[in-house]
Amino acid sequence: MIDYKGKVVLITGGARGFGAEFARGFAGRGATVVIGDINTELGEATVAEISRGGSACHFLSLDVRSDIDWAAAVDYCVSEVGGLDVVINNAGVEISELYIDTTPQACRDLFDINLVGTMLGIKHAFLAMQPGGASGRGGAILNLASVAGLSSTPGLAAYSASKAGVISLTKLAATEAGTFDYGVRANCLCPSLFNTDMGRKLLNDFPGLGLGESVEAVKEGLIARIPVGRFGELSDVVNAALYLCSEEASFINGVALPVDGGMSGAG
Ligand SMILES: NC(=O)c1ccc[n+]([C@@H]2O[C@H](COP(=O)([O-])OP(=O)(O)OC[C@H]3O[C@@H](n4cnc5c(N)ncnc54)[C@H](O)[C@@H]3O)[C@@H](O)[C@H]2O)c1
């Protein structure tokens, strides 16, 4: 069983959804987890729930778009919690709209969180984890991309472009970390549609865009495209994360791992 005792894991967007489930999963394996999110109320509630189970979990206010917030978050991990071993760049947003309805500001806002936020997360992880950095013991970065970054779904242009960008940022991070011997691996996950606030919103948006007659019809169409014949559970994504960030995956670097029941491979 993969063990994270003695490791400090910083998870952005950990107040709910995948992020909260990552927090439960890593804390359950012995890690000290730090949740960084803009939603303080929900983030503190998630931390309280995990802490009640006896695990070490902390909340801090972090807007991933802010270089200053990132510096403070990493400083908190190192000085208050004992280091930084894993950064999960999970915070993200989506917009579902057709090209013909695109508004520049909505796209810029999305790119700011999904791309600039991820870039800053990589930057501060490198600064802290590299030899001589504030933590200085290497580590692992996991970014949240999406199958949308691998394939084409109408209505998701800005979101898909941002997730294709996250895949590119991940490969580049793995390469740059190797070039400068930071002792850091970087990988990303490409999940299909999951039952979170974001996943439910996406499903509900599709019929309104003319992409399916009803939510039920969209769901049936999606399941028909998944070779294992079911939607994924959040635990499927957490298990992939626990593996990729562990020593067991020490030779896995720069990959974009679909967690999609085979959907992207089926074309
Ligand atoms: N749910 C899916 O079906 C799915 C599929 C593929 C990829 N993803 C990706 O997984 C990640 C998590 O998705 P989710 O479904 O849990 O989303 P969610 O909307 O349920 O949760 C996102 C979290 O990010 C936080 N957040 C938003 N903006 C932030 C910011 N600027 N700084 C810090 N935190 C911020 C929110 O407060 C929230 O807690 C996202 O990157 C998403 O694109 C989700």
TrEMBL record:
This is Oxidoreductase. Signal peptide: none annotated. Belongs to the short-chain dehydrogenases/reductases (SDR) family. Keywords: Lipid metabolism, NAD, Oxidoreductase, Steroid metabolism. InterPro entries: NAD(P)-bd_dom_sf, Sc_DH/Rdtase_CS, SDR_fam. GO terms for molecular function: oxidoreductase activity. It holds the Pfam family adh_short_C2. The keyword NAD applies. GO terms for biological process: steroid metabolic process. PANTHER family: 3-OXOACYL-(ACYL-CARRIER-PROTEIN) REDUCTASE (AFU_ORTHOLOGUE AFUA_6G11210) (PTHR43180), NAD(P)-BINDING ROSSMANN-FOLD SUPERFAMILY PROTEIN (PTHR43180:SF28).
